[in-house]
What does this fold into?
Amino acid sequence: MAGEKTEKATPKKRRDARKEGNVFKSVEINNSITIIAAVLGFTVLWKSMLEGIKELFVFMISKGYQTYGLVNDKTFSSLLILCGKTITKVCGPLVILIMISGIAANYAQVGFLFVPKSIKPKAERISMLSGFKRIFSMKTLKDLIKSLLKISAVCVIAYSIFKSLIEETPSVMLLDLDNSIEYGVNKSLNIAFKILLAMVTISIIDYIFQFFEHEKKLKMSKQEIKDEYKTTEGNPEIKSRIKDTQRQFAMSRMMQQIPNADVVITNPTHYAVAIKYDRIKDNAPIVVAKGADLIAQKIKEIARENKIEIVESKELARSLFKTTEIGQEIPYELFNAVAEILAYIYTMKEKKKY
It folds into this structure.
């Protein structure tokens, strides 16, 4: 079918889609990279985070009353500031790491992209009909299946680990506070890494799926490609007409230069080359017109009308036609041959004067 979208998107279609914010991106990849950064950051920072929290508790228990006294409006705000500073100090590095990883993951997939159109209010966003269509669309169904897969994977992994943890609980009760916390953190990280492995697997599958979905959305029909070509490159018929007009204009200008030529060298039927030489302005003779077949005949006709000498030289005419463009100086290797003809022409003109 003519309207069937079977062709890959053109570079222009991809650029236009990007301007509209329609870019290839897997949200699952972003989520996985962010969580990986969070887990790795917590693995490295959890001891220093724990120390910061312990310091706050020790201070509040041992010196809090002496420093702040009874809780009132003034002391409450001071306590809030102290807690805020502690939380910023304890959690700040991890939060910054998560933010950087999220931005880096998004930039790696999309690059820098700002689409003002995406934040403009649209009527269909508040339309109930459009809302129902979005809720019961294939995209929503795919997202639901994806979410169920993630939840199922997390539940299976969590169940298998918590089952063994329950069996170890009695022995953990005998540990002191520091060892209990370390045990709990290590087990939590173990769970997190196993869940991450499942999430990364789902992310890779989602990445491949999103890639093919994006490519499918961008596909074009053959007619769309033709229309795009006409828009960007111009209609072939119009371009052909413009070229014909330019060719005719160039031909007209060339014919106007023939009356100024010193000589026309022919071959004698196929080629004709008109040459002009100004001893003051030019370093070498210049080709002012050339042509083959019918154009060659026209050049000779104009030359006769304007009493321009026509000299027959088959090899020279052919060489000049093939090696020199209109407005260019003749090649160095043809200087002698052309000079002899020009010398002959100038001699003939001098004789005619007398």
Summary: The chain has a mean pLDDT of 78. The two ends are 82 Å apart (CA to CA). Residues 256-353 form a domain with the name from scop fold (CATH 3.40.1690.10). The first strand starts at residue 263 and ends at 266.
